[in-house]
Write a structure and sequence with these properties.
904 residues, mainly beta, 22-stranded antiparallel beta barrel, five-stranded antiparallel β-sheet
Length: 904
């Protein structure tokens, strides 16, 4: 008998069902929506031990069919983001305006997605860092291991493991279509999926194939969501305030006229090229005005970026004998998009004899006291046909896997697999300034009445560029097509990521103690990771572009691992007490950093079947990624404060800062303690409660810091070493020539919190009534000792609410289903206080209120058809005032979706 609906089971509910205790056992007679569960169907993926009835010490939350359908989410990552243990770090809705848009990852505990290991049917796969790769229509359930699990599953399982379980035994036809749109008329999406599965060879073989397509148009304008066009404003009294629609008076899309110091004259070039007053807003202070007719960079950044997604998946399996099965998987994934990026905002030097300054312009400038050269702050939203920069990407994944599994002897089982996957990414960022051409084109003069680049105006000059095209920056729409073609270009990067992974494991019960059989599992994993850069455009190689110069990353590493796990029963008094201890160890040998151990130890105590107590302590690791190891050198120029010079240090301009990978990195090391338990009282069948405390401490964290922070750390650690161990290169006069600021093992992350869960399930009429609540409370989240828990603004790194929770009530029968879900996100402070001249500056409205979102869903069923509809954020709760897109709060607003499914 197969598990039909694991969605309402959580933590140790899996193991409790497997043990068939009275509190959990159900029969098919209770309701058509409830099926009996056979203990052979349950495998606890929080452990390598696969005995039925096994109580794993590491908590496991199950997201089943019911949760997967809640809200009709467009990707698995968005389903996980609704779960309180996860932070919505990267989905299309929370990564606009950067080159990671469209990537959807799982970020448990808010520690960064690289510290959550994602598996597919218990195996690593190439697309693990992008959950869009997994075909959602074929997912049976998702097991979330909420604790360190590197000893069982390998590197990356620092915060936990997301194990996506496919419906490998699916038979019949399954198809559907859906559509959705926000109440503001954007975020339209269209999708379809189809799957077919069948047995063959008299039931010894099984084959299934599925495909899905999703096209989401995105939310490209923030004007209907005014809280998202926000930022900090410094008032006349020196205090800071979060305000809606702050606009810079230094920038304007026709050109803002500035003094040589950058201070504005409050004069602009109107769209027609004539000079007028800056269209100031209600309050102007310094270089910022609230409202008015200016521009904010967030005016151009999408709320949610569009994408087009295609997934195909096929699987075949065959029982060679009653105890040996072979299988093979193949998958194809493509994700693509093309959308507007934010515009460039250069400040150009305008000489008094500029070719495009009319006499009227010169007269107005003179009257305003503008003499000699001036700066022009320009928002370049009028370049060529695309107007602003355009980001275009295509991400393709091809993956295949083969494996075998079987049993022998008395309860022994084995499995082995090999997986090869390749991800190929082609990305472009068009309409960027070619810096030298732009500078030369702007500096133009009249020669015989014809605008000419100054470098070509004098035949005797040595730096002529005959192809130089003069650029008119005065007014919006003034840049000619010829100038745009010549002075603007694009970066392009094509690279391929390859993963080869293989593993074999054996599990069984070699002997027994006085309390029962001892379980062991042992095996080996091997994998090879490689990244090859196929193409970098010539402009990027020359560092010629104004915003993004693509950089190559080439490198590889391999790791060989062995692991073992053992579970020993120490006490088993029927229906009274059952005590087991569990331990696991893994040795990993990396070609880059050498050997390292990870391990865990823990135990469980079951009391009169109703109460399960558990604890586990683990040492977990995360090895560096290829990017962290091998990212090619990037070059930036900036202003730094050099604390090594003089009594109080000194400011130095135009310092070259090199970024990039670091081949000397070593793995991160984490220690995790989890203590908790679950309660399923026999006097209340269907009721389940669980609470787990976690404490995660990660050392050797791989990260980068700003150049100024790096200099501070160098001075604090070694004030007599002005080179900081070779990181700083100094000229003969003592000034800084360059700083190497790549990835380093230099941080510590710590977090402590509680996971709380409660669920209740009961028959009602011809159906089933279910309740489930999940909550997460973060006591602290410390980044190098600084606690960021309770800072919830979009500009705060690791911003984390102290409380998140969901509560769902659902009814399901053969003909009708309905669900009501509440999603709660705690409030807090938007950000830490800003420090100016070593003095914290007060933010007068730093407080952010909590949000509660209401989601509704209904399903009408007749025969093989199911008609469904969903409304997310029913009451259209606005996000808080945020200068970007907060990862914590709903930024889309009310969203309505509907569709039809067909199963037969």
């Amino acid at each position: 008998m197969k598990v039909v609906q694991l969605g309402w089971l959580a933590s140790t509910a899996l193991t409790a069902i497997a043990s068939q205790s009275p509190a959990y056992a159900q029969t098919a007679s209770e309701s058509p929506a409830v099926s009996a569960v056979n203990d052979e169907d349950i495998v606890v993926t929080g452990s390598r031990i696969q005995r039925s009835g096994f109580d794993a010490p590491t908590p496991t939350t199950v997201i089943g069919e019911a949760e997967l359908s809640l809200g009709n989410r467009a990707s698995i990552a968005q389903v996980l983001n609704d779960t309180p243990q996860f932070r919505a770090t990267s989905t299309p809705s929370t990564t606009p305006g950067n080159t990671s848009s469209g990537v959807s990852t799982a970020d448990m505990r808010g520690l960064g997605s690289v510290r959550t290991l994602t598996l597919l049917n218990g195996h690593r796969f190439a697309g693990a860092n992008d959950l869009n790769i997994v075909p959602q229509s074929l997912v049976k359930r998702i097991d979330v291991v909420t604790g360190g699990a590197s000893a069982a599953w390998g590197s990356g399982a620092v915060a936990g493991v997301v194990n996506i379980i496919l419906d490998d035994d699916f038979s019949g036809w399954r198809m559907g279509v859906q559509t959705g749109v926000s109440s503001r008329g954007d975020m339209a999406r269209y999708g379809a999926d189809i799957a077919w599965g069948t047995d063959f060879a008299g039931g010894r073989g099984h084959f299934m194939v599925g495909g899905e397509y999703m096209n989401e148009r995105g939310a490209l304008s923030r004007h209907d969501r005014p809280n998202l066009e926000a930022g900090l404003f410094q008032r006349a009294d020196g205090k800071l305030e979060l305000v809606r629609d702050p606009n810079s008076t230094q920038l304007y899309n026709g050109g803002s006229i500035l003094r040589a110091t950058g201070a504005p004259y409050n004069l602009v070039f109107n769209p027609d090229g004539n000079i007028g007053a800056f269209p100031l807003g209600s309050i102007t202070q310094g270089v910022t005005t609230i409202g008015g007719g200016g521009q904010n960079i967030f005016d151009y950044v999408a709320v949610s970026t569009p994408y087009e997604r295609t997934n195909l998946f096929a699987r075949a399996s065959y029982d060679l004998t009653d105890s040996l099965k072979v299988w093979a998987n193949f998958s194809f994934h493509r994700m693509a998009a093309n959308y507007s990026f934010f515009p460039e905002t250069p400040a150009a030097v305008i000489m008094p004899d500029n070719a495009f300054l009319t006499q009227a312009n010169r007269d107005q400038l003179a009257a305003a006291g503008v003499a000699g050269p001036f700066l022009l702050g320009r928002v370049l939203d009028d370049v060529g046909d695309d107007r602003v920069m355009k980001f275009k990407y295509s991400r393709r994944n091809l993956e295949g896997a083969i494996g075998l599994s079987g049993k022998f002897g008395d309860g022994w089982s084995y499995e082995a697999y090999y997986d090869h996957g390749e991800i190929r990414l082609n990305q472009r960022l068009n309409n960027q300034r070619i810096k030298s051409r732009f500078t030369n084109g702007v500096d133009s003069v009249l020669v015989n009445g014809t605008p000419t680049c100054r470098i070509n105006a004098d035949a005797s000059t040595a730096n002529d560029d005959p192809s130089c095209v003069p650029i008119n920056l005065f007014g919006n729409g003034s840049i000619s097509d010829a100038a745009a073609d010549w002075a603007f270009g694009g970066s392009q990067l094509i690279y391929t990521i390859k993963l080869d992974a293989a593993g074999a494991s054996l599990s069984g019960q070699p002997f027994s103690t006085w309390a029962g059989p001892v379980d062991i599992a042992l095996g080996s994993d091997v994998r090879w990771e490689k990244q090859v850069t196929n193409y970098v455009d010539p402009l990027s190689l020359a560092n010629a572009l104004g915003t993004l110069n693509s950089s190559a990353t080439n490198g590889s590493f391999n790791v060989k691992e062995v692991f073992a796990e053992v579970n020993v029963p120490l006490l088993d008094i029927t229906d009274t007490l059952k005590l087991e201890i569990n331990g696991a160890a893994r040795y990993s040998d990396y070609s880059t950093s050498g050997g390292i151990w990870s391990w865990k130890t823990g135990g469980t105590l079951r009391v009169v079947n109703d109460l399960l107590l558990r604890a586990v302590y683990s040492r977990d690791i995360r090895s560096p990624s290829i990017t962290e190891y091998f990212l090619n050198r990037s070059t930036n120029i900036g202003t730094v404060f050099d604390p090594f010079v003089g009594a109080n240090g000194t400011v130095q301009n135009n310092v070259v800062v090199y970024g990039g990978g670091n081949k000397l990195l070593t793995p991160e090391i984490s220690h995790t303690l989890t203590v908790g338990g679950s309660y399923s009282p026999s006097f209340a069948p269907g009721l389940r409660l669980s609470v787990d405390y976690y404490d995660i401490d990660i050392d050797n964290v791989i990260t980068t810091v700003t150049a100024n922070d790096l200099l501070k750390q160098c001075f604090a650690a070694a004030p007599t070493d002005p080179t900081c161990g070779g990181i700083i290169v100094r000229e003969t006069n003592g000034t800084i020539g360059s700083i190497t600021n790549g990835y380093r093992n230099l941080a510590n992350y710590q977090t402590q919190g509680l996971d709380i869960e409660a669920s209740y399930r009961m028959p009602l009429g011809n159906g089933t009534l279910s309740f489930r609540a999940l909550a997460n409370h973060v006591f602290n989240l410390k980044i190098n000792g600084n606690d960021v828990a309770g800072f919830v603004g979009g500009d705060t790194a690791f911003s984390t609410p102290q409380w998140r929770g969901t509560a769902t009530v659902a009814y399901d029968s053969d003909s009708f289903g309905a669900n009501l879900r509440l999603r709660y996100v705690d409030g807090g402070l938007d950000r830490p206080l800003t420090v100016v001249n070593n003095v914290p500056v007060e933010i007068v409205n730093n407080k952010v209120a909590s949000r509660t979102y209401v989601d509704l869903g209904v399903q009408f069923k007749t025969g093989p058809f199911t008609l469904f509809g969903n409304v997310n954020n029913l009451f259209d709760r606005d996000p808080p005032i945020t200068p970007y897109t907060s990862p914590n709060y709903d930024v889309i607003g009310r969203y309505v979706s509907a569709g039809v499914k067909l199963n037969f």
